[in-house]
Design brief:
By secondary structure, the chain is of the alpha/beta class. The protein has 18 helices and 27 strands. The chain folds into two domains: about 425 residues, Rossmann fold (3-Layer(aba) Sandwich); about 100 residues, GMP Synthetase, Chain A, domain 3, CATH 3.30.300.30. It has a 15-stranded mixed β-sheet that branches. A five-stranded parallel β-sheet has the order 4-3-5-6-7, with helices on both faces. Bound molecules: adenosine-5'-triphosphate and magnesium ion (MG).
């Protein structure tokens, strides 16, 4: 099914925060966005945790549920804004009592449990720097990140510590304190303390010390899709963007129930799984369990989720499970659905209409940008396959290198080039940890260069072509894997697809595709030929895959991104490179 444009209604049950895109762009200023926040009492600066928690805890929202945790086993725990303020104050006081202060690095290696969220916000209150890691990481990725980040405190569980940290502890010279969720701290773990009694013994009030908006707040490692993960450094001022983009791009309204499915180990799970919804004062649902189609539809229904933020990989898995699963569910509360992390194939956008009664709104950003930059907004017509238009406050351009090697803007529409952003928004990263040269290399002629290739159409919508590293050069064409993959996904047998370039003596490269199949289909020579023919009919000979292999599943990062570089390395018999973020690899 193909649709070029999905129009929006003229009347709204809930009026979107941004009704007119152009007008919102011209009226927007970051100064006004900053003024929509409170700042620390007494003019003592800006602190993420104050904006996300404390400013609500004393006011109208004090008894609203801030976080609702769904445990994997079924239990439900809620923290109101007032309770969250108290718990995070206890955590901040506990850190202070340990002598942990401003700028010190506090890491978490935890599942999506309340302690993770309390630690994150408590750390920020204390002026320390928070860095969440995926609990599924193996010992080596944990070691590399703790060491690079100079972790002084690690918040984890005894079980995770034994499996992932005990064996590498010797390498972690800066690590002093290990806070273990629960009541027990075995004496043989150096620096271990049980978190529950530590918090119970700490005071539930904490005055946030003066915080410079430029103080380091969050450390986030990139997904490692294209190589070794980089540690992006973010400051307290980022909350201005988290709050503004929560309202503009996710259309958060006061009484929303919001569910971001990302783990805080990935930047999405922190910016939009912790900070943005709380800064906007809504109720946020956190599910501890891993993906399960039936469970997810149940959560959407039972928690009465109104705004849902997920990822293309989840959309593809839901498509694979079949829209019938959604049919028996009452999803009438849901009013806005968005996705980020990878290109969202047009099939996925349209699937939303079928299964959820709403299109999926793609948006684009990266660890480095800290927040959403380009998006399909609630009141905007959706063009399936496009990531939308730059948010108010964001200037985006298509750039290319001229003959003299200088970066120049490509003004005419339809031309492929690198996506560039004009620096200056609040959640912009302030550096890569320990790699100043790499940070500097991201900037040229006043632009921040994203490493992604895009096109912009005449109406200002951006279309993702591929990552610079993934683009295939064949017989004088530049082929974006996304185009090839989206075409293959239109075939009813295909659940997931990835395209890579394979060396060719004549064409430089040719396209090879890897696909995994939907339930009910099995690999066969006949199906392979059918898919190659299908690709050719959609894409033409020059762009279509010449080779195609079946895989039971495609290799993915923990944030759900297809790792094309790994498929390529395996295909060509080359070293696999950094696989620390490979899902199922730990
Ligand atoms: P690494 O930089 O370590 O290779 P990564 O780029 O995957 O990993 P993230 O910062 O998590 O790490 O991902 C950002 C990237 O994800 C973007 O630069 C882009 O390539 C891709 N991406 C995110 N959202 C979209 C989207 N809506 N459409 C297309 N691509 C997207
Ligand atoms: Mg990247």
């Amino acid at each position: 099914m193909h649709r070029d444009v999905i129009e929006k209604p003229r009347t709204w049950a809930v009026v979107p925060n941004v009704l007119e895109y152009e007008r919102a762009r011209s009226e927007f200023s970051w100064a006004a966005a900053r003024a929509a926040l409170d700042g620390l009492p007494g003019g003592h600066g800006l602190n993420i945790a104050h904006e996300a928690v404390d400013r609500h805890a004393g006011g109208r929202l004090r008894d609203r549920v801030a976080l609702r945790f769904l445990a994997a086993a079924g239990a439900r725990t809620e923290l109101s804004y007032r309770q969250l303020a108290a718990e995070t104050a206890r955590f901040a006081n506990a850190l202070r009592a340990l002598g942990v202060g401003r700028g010190d690095r506090v890491f978490a290696l935890l599942g999506r449990v309340p302690e993770l969220y309390v630690a994150a916000l408590g750390t920020l209150k204390n002026g320390s720097v928070f860095c969440p890691l995926f609990s599924a990481f193996g010992p080596e990725p944990v070691r590399a990140r703790l060491e690079l980040g100079g972790a002084r405190v690690l918040v984890t569980t005894e079980e995770l510590y034994r499996r992932k940290v005990a064996g590498i502890r010797g390498a972690l010279s800066s690590l002093e304190h290990v806070l273990l969720a629960g009541d027990a701290a075995p004496a043989e773990i150096p620096g271990a303390r049980a978190l529950a009694p530590l918090l119970a013994g700490a005071a539930p009030r904490f005055e946030i010390p003066p915080t410079d908006p430029e103080d380091l707040a969050l450390l986030h490692f990139t997904s490692g899709t294209t190589g070794r993960p980089k540690g992006a450094m973010h400051v307290h001022e980022a909350v201005v963007a988290h709050h503004a983009t929560g309202r503009i791009a996710l259309d958060l309204h006061d009484d929303d129930v919001f569910w971001c499915t990302a783990d805080p180990g990935w930047v999405t799970g922190t910016s939009y799984g912790i900070v943005a919804p709380l800064a906007c004062g809504v109720t946020s649902v956190v599910d501890e369990a891993e993906f399960d189609a039936d469970r997810w539809y149940r959560i959407l229904e039972e928690e009465r989720v109104s705004v849902w933020y997920t990822a293309p990989t989840a959309v593809r898995m839901l498509m694979k499970a079949g829209a019938e699963l959604a049919r028996g569910r009452d999803l009438s509360r849901l009013r806005f659905v968005a996705s980020v992390g990878e290109p969202l194939n047009p099939e996925g956008v349209v699937w939303g209409l079928d299964a959820l009664g709403l299109p999926v709104h793609d948006n684009w950003w990266q660890t480095e940008t800290g927040g959403i930059m380009i998006a399909n907004l609630a009141a905007m017509a959706v063009r399936p396959g496009s990531m939308g238009r730059p948010l108010p406050g964001i200037t985006a351009a298509v750039v290319a290198r001229g003959p003299d090697g200088r970066v120049v803007e490509v003004a005419e529409p339809g031309v492929e080039g690198e996506l560039a952003l004009a620096p200056g928004w609040p959640s912009m990263f302030r550096g890569y940890l320990g790699d100043e040269a790499r940070y500097r290399a991201c900037f040229a002629e006043g632009w921040y260069l994203t490493g992604d290739l895009v096109r912009r159409d005449a109406d200002g919508y951006f279309w993702f072509v591929g990552r610079k590293d993934d683009v295939i050069k064949s017989a004088g064409h530049l082929i974006g894997p996304f185009e090839v993959e989206s075409a293959l996904l239109e075939h009813p047998a295909v659940a997931e697809a990835a395209a890579i370039g394979k060396p060719d003596p004549v064409a430089l490269e040719f396209v090879k595709a890897f696909v995994s199949l939907k339930p009910g289909y099995a690999p066969s020579e006949a199906l392979r030929l059918e898919l190659i023919g299908f690709g050719r009919s959609r894409l033409g000979r020059a762009v279509a895959p010449k080779e195609l292999d079946f895989l039971p599943a495609l290799p993915r990062t923990r944030s759900g991104k297809i790792m094309r570089r790994l498929l390529k390395a395996r295909e060509l018999g080359l070293p696999e490179g950094d696989t620390s973020t490979l899902e199922g690899g730990a």
